[in-house]
Design a protein that fits this description.
- With 494 residues, the protein is mostly helical.
- It has one domain.
- Helix content is 84%, strand content 0%.
- It is globular, with a radius of gyration of 22 Å.
- 55% of the residues are buried.
Length: 494
């Protein structure tokens, strides 16, 4: 067996395990959230939603892109890997201090003094998130994707159970904060257990310049992406976060966004973990590189296109089933945001595509363009919504702006990434088209069936949701049967 075929099989085996465990993890996440939605008031989710944008913004620069540089670098020495580890730990300490210092400013900025204590508590996640990143990079470099997926699933499951137990004790937002720490610390233990590599003592490493250069641009792109994806939540917190009613709307908005991103993460987490090492290993073989890139994007479209169309149809009913009638407002926001789920997923995996060919600088430029388009959309939404002088109008306007701006920028951004990486853009578009067409057909027919069920059948929401999803799945598999067969074949061992 030649090296490309052996690599392809190794990636496929790992990706299959990751997908299975990622799917199991999403099911666990939905069950956990269904419990938490009933135990924790939406305003408490809103408080967390006001803190997380800043926390995630800091964490986006926490690794300085050095974990990605470690995977992308073909011949990484022990001394280089050790130096990268200690730099990331130092960065985590610094960002924890910065996050703690920003907590009082957040409480003042949002006119919400109740934000101070949980914001201080969340600051430590900046360090916790950096404790395992270098070990994870070393494991990904060796394509130990399945074992990493086991660690992620286990930590997520235990953290979810802990959060439910604490929420049952009426600890509110503190149950949500504890969930963050339990998951990160258990993941650290799991990744260190899986990956036998250990760092040397801190010391000088004179050959880090190329890695730092790559990591710097990758960090800049991560910062720009994080800023763009969280600007709407910051604006919402600034405009309506000073009241409990506003905090409830922020809770609805942030949880709608999180539910929309679940299928995106379901597809892109295993893809990204497999794409970077696979494409980096084949970047000097243009034909094999283009074949591999086309397969990854085809896979993303097959999985994400029906999720995007389906969530747009069933969003309101899904949130009622998950959290009860009081979460129906979040369902409308979910239906709107879900229209952009496929576009968001394709944008996300472009990071691995450009990183694999060492184009971190161009990735940062692309992230800047996305940020500018989203910012313009949010600004227009706020100006228009303020004419109605209502918190709900602002919330709804930002959801519409997110979906519209993401759909607007995605085609140009994808074309930019394909050109820079020397991937075959026309071939990739052709590979994705059947799944997208099938998803549109599924969405239209499923909307019609759901409308009939809601108008003429008196059924519990969970039954209506189940029947609608079942019908949609049958339609999609029927229309896209060629794509589904291809996916199943690719996931099997040769």
């Amino acid at each position: 067996m030649n090296q490309p075929d052996e690599l392809s099989q190794q990636v496929r085996r790992g990706a299959r395990a990751v997908i299975g465990l990622q799917l199991a993890g999403q099911i666990v996440s939905i069950v956990v959230l269904a419990a938490l939605y009933r135990l924790v008031d939406p305003s408490q989710f809103g408080l967390l939603g006001m803190i997380l944008p800043v926390t995630l913004l800091l964490r986006s620069v926490g690794t300085l892109g050095l974990n990605i540089a470690a995977v992308q670098q073909r011949d990484l020495t022990q001394s280089q890997a050790s130096a990268l580890f200690w730099i990331q730990i130092l960065a985590g300490v610094v960002l924890t201090i910065v996050a703690a210092a920003l907590a009082p400013a957040l409480a003042f900025f949002y006119a919400a003094p109740e934000l101070l204590a949980p914001a201080l508590a969340m600051s430590g996640t900046a360090l916790a998130a950096n404790l395992f990143t270098q070990h994870q990079a070393m494991a990904e470099k060796r394509l130990r994707l399945g074992e990493l997926a086991v660690a992620r699933f286990t930590s997520q499951l235990i953290a979810g159970v802990a959060a439910i137990a604490l929420a049952y004790s009426e600890l509110g937002i503190w149950a949500l904060v504890a969930q963050q720490y339990v998951e990160l610390l258990l993941l650290t233990f799991g990744v260190w257990w899986i990956e036998p590599w250990r760092p040397d003592a801190p010391g000088r490493e004179p050959t880090l310049a190329p890695l730092l250069h790559f990591g710097g641009y990758y960090t800049l792109s991560g910062l720009l992406f994080a800023a763009a994806q969280n600007l709407d939540k910051v604006l919402l917190a600034l405009l309506i976060g000073h009241t409990e009613a506003g905090q409830r709307l922020i809770g609805y908005y942030s949880q709608a966004f999180n539910q929309m991103m679940k299928p995106v993460y379901l597809a892109t987490v295993p893809l990204a973990s497999a794409m970077l090492p696979a494409l980096a290993a084949t970047r000097d073989e243009p034909t094999h590189f283009r074949d591999t890139a086309a397969e990854f994007y085809r896979f993303a479209a097959i999985v994400l296109a029906p999720c995007s169309a389906g969530l747009a149809v069933v969003g309101q009913n899904a949130m009622v089933v998950l959290g009860g009638p009081e979460w129906q407002t979040a369902g409308l926001l979910l239906s709107i945001m879900a229209l952009a789920a496929l576009a968001q997923g394709l944008i996300n995996i472009c990071g691995s595509l450009l990183a694999a060919v060492g184009q971190a600088k161009r990735l940062a430029l692309g992230a800047l363009a996305i940020g500018l388009v989203l910012s313009a959309g949010y600004a227009i939404a706020v100006v228009v919504a303020r004419q109605w002088d209502g918190d709900w109008a602002v919330t709804l306007g930002l959801a519409i702006a997110y979906a519209a701006a993401t759909l607007l920028i995605a085609p140009g951004y994808l074309a930019f990434c394909f050109t820079i990486s020397d991937a075959d853009g026309k071939r990739i578009a052709g590979a994705m088209a059947p799944a997208i067409v099938a998803a549109i057909v599924m969405g239209v027919l499923t909307w019609g069936v759901q409308y009939l069920l809601l108008q003429y059948a008196t059924l519990p929401p969970i039954v209506t949701l189940g029947l609608t999803i079942l019908f949609g799945a049958i339609v999609y598999v029927g229309v896209a049967q060629g794509e589904v067969r291809w996916l199943l074949r690719r996931m099997k061992n040769d």
